[in-house]
Amino acid sequence: MRWKGWWIGILFGMVLGVALPAAAQQGPRDRSITVLQPKPVLRSATLEWRPRLMSTVANPLVRQTGVGGSLALNLGERWYIAGHAEGYDFFTVFSGTTERYAEAIDTTATIPEVVELRWLSALEVGWVPFFGKFALFNRAIAYFDFYLAGSVGVQSATRSLSPVLGLAGGGNLYLTRWLGLNVEFRDRFSLEELSGGTSVYQTMSVALGVSFLMPLGRRTSAADDARGGR
Fold first, then answer.
1. If you average pLDDT over residues 200-221, what whole number do you get?
2. pLDDT at 47 over 80
3. What is residue 9's predicted lDDT score, i.e. its pLDDT?
4. Residue 13: pLDDT above 60?
5. Long-range contacts of 51-55 (CB under 8 A, 24+ apart)
6. Buried b (16+ CB within 10 A) or exposed e, 175-186
7. How many whole angstroms separate alpha carbon 207 and alpha carbon 189?
């Protein structure tokens, strides 16, 4: 029975001789490294100008194309206040009533009431709920954000001036630290004088434009950018 004890000792030593070096090699590889990257685009303390080309949607009787934009003061990375304006008297060739409008007249023998916008001016407050970045064509890092906004203002339509409340949602895709692409959806509610009296009129539009970030203060170094983006 004594020889069995020797063989058990030899086998135990061989197992330890294989297991210990393997564990020593795997230990460092299993350690994770945490890397904190600075936020690539800083919005805080900047002016942001967003010129846009827009078109009204969801109204089968009238379609309008206009120009406009927003000038925003970014109070932080998530909040901003902005002045917003739109004009619809620049592209009259691409604006006006549609074929459905003429069909409605032929079918009902009546003229439908429509509201055609001329211009709009509003003050809005916006919030950026989330942002991030991704690899663009596996060559560059692009930064994006999405925002929600509410506005109050005045608009000039077919008949007269009227108060207007608006809701907006959009996003920016920043190609550099100061230049990005902007897309936006906007929904507005105004009080309009129609033949049946004063009514709430809804106008929806989509817009495509660019975004320019203009810092209000001078950034001294990349380290300052990293500290401000945490």
1. 83
2. yes
3. 54
4. no
5. 51/209, 51/210, 52/182, 52/184, 52/207, 52/208, 52/209, 53/207, 53/208, 53/209, 54/86, 54/184, 54/186, 54/205, 54/206, 54/207, 54/208, 55/205, 55/206, 55/207
6. eeeeebebebeb
7. 17
Q: What is the pTM of this model?
A: 0.75
d(CA 85, CA 70): 7
pLDDT higher than 90, residue 212: yes
Please, are residues 53 and 207 in contact by the beta-carbon 8 Å criterion? yes
Residue 45's alpha-carbon distances to 91, 131, 213, in angstroms, are 35, 17, 10
**C-alpha 23: how far from chain center:** 49
Rounded Cα gap, residues 150 and 188, in angstroms: 10
**141 near 105, Cβ under 8 Å?**
no
**At residue 149, does pLDDT exceed 90?**
yes
